[in-house]
Amino acid sequence: MFIASEHTVCRTFISGSTTRQQQLSSARGSICRYSTESSINGCTALLYRNHGDPSQVVQLESMELPSVGAKSVLVKLLAAPINPSDINMIQGSYAILPDLPAVGGNEGVGQILEVGSQVKALRPGDWVIPRDAGLGTWRTAAVLAENDVISLPNDIPLFSAATLGVNPCTAFRMLSDFEELKPGDTVIQNAANSGVGQAVIQIAAARGIQTINVVRDRPDLTQLIDRLKAMGASHVIKEETLRRHEMKELFKTCPRPKLALNGVGGKSATELLRHLQVGGSMVTYGGMAKQPVTVPVSALIFKNVKVKGFWVTQWKRTHSQDDEGALRGMLDELCSLIRQGKLTAPACSEVGLQDFRKALDTAMQPFTSAKQVLVL
């Protein structure tokens, strides 16, 4: 990550009321402007110099950019979401932490403005997303190594591209790598309204896989159930239902799940385990309850369940040397689903960079219905 001394740069923010079509037009217009002129030499970024409360430590600052080297690219960032992992990284509680000072943001989409003389796989106009976490996407522009990013088609919606690299990839891999799921099989998951949960629903539906989706009770529960079912959810139930007789009735209409996906932990995870079929797997990818996963001895002995974990960042690093075939294949398949209308981005609220404090505060609230996306 490149952090340089402060340098004043004038930028025009895309306001929160700008339409997606205007965003794309603005992005494509700037490629014509910058690709025929000298490199821009600075950017505006959300920077933190210490770990702590994001509302206290994150600051909007100007930064210098280095010149575009032979194997680097100049990227104009277009949109970047605020994810829980971004918050945890700023707080200092995430598994990997960048050197400080650091630019926030692990996910987002940008457009190539210029390429170095030895860059072969990218060209001006390409859309790109980070290959790995810690790149620092909450900024208006960046000079990055060619290998730091991977291209995406620019004919998909902006917010779908901006939110593709983490949650849909996590959902895709968990549905692909742990159990051999066939049409008609069932998956059960908690945190079903999360970004991962929504992607699981849609990818599973596209594969003919049924989903039992567990959500917390809330004032707008009926609307949430309707929204998840419109995405393709087979069943949507409250946490409390996991412990009730209604589950027996539910399993008269669908087979017990081969796979359970746990993004919560605590009692919720234990209840998911109880409903797995013999030999099934529970995969933990998050711990929103901040409580340990407790596995009943009976589940291990009598049902031979498998308990595993998944972190998409580690998956990407493990597969970084395979000529990008696995990552490229996954992104191509996800983009195909997007084009077919079978995979949509979660509900998003677009926010200008200058309104970052409000966006951070909203992103940290419980029952947040829309992902905060910084439009750059």
From TrEMBL:
Organism domain of life: Eukaryota
Gene Ontology annotations of biological process type: fatty acid biosynthetic process
GO cellular component, one term: mitochondrion
Alphabetized Pfam families for the sequence: ADH_N, ADH_zinc_N
Coiled coil: none
InterPro entries on file: ADH-like_C, ADH-like_N, ER, GroES-like_sf, Mito_Enoyl-ACP_Reductase, NAD(P)-bd_dom_sf
Record gene name: MECR
Record's protein name: Enoyl-[acyl-carrier-protein] reductase, mitochondrial
Family of this protein: Belongs to the zinc-containing alcohol dehydrogenase family. Quinone oxidoreductase subfamily.
Protein source organism: Oncorhynchus tshawytscha
A GO MF term: enoyl-[acyl-carrier-protein] reductase (NADPH) activity
Keywords, ordered alphabetically: Fatty acid biosynthesis, Fatty acid metabolism, Lipid biosynthesis, Lipid metabolism, Mitochondrion, NADP, Oxidoreductase, Transit peptide
Keyword NADP: yes
E.C. no: 1.3.1.104
Subcellular location: Mitochondrion
CDD domains: ETR
Broadest EC class assigned to this enzyme: oxidoreductase
Enoyl reductase (ER) domain mapped to chain residues: 52-374
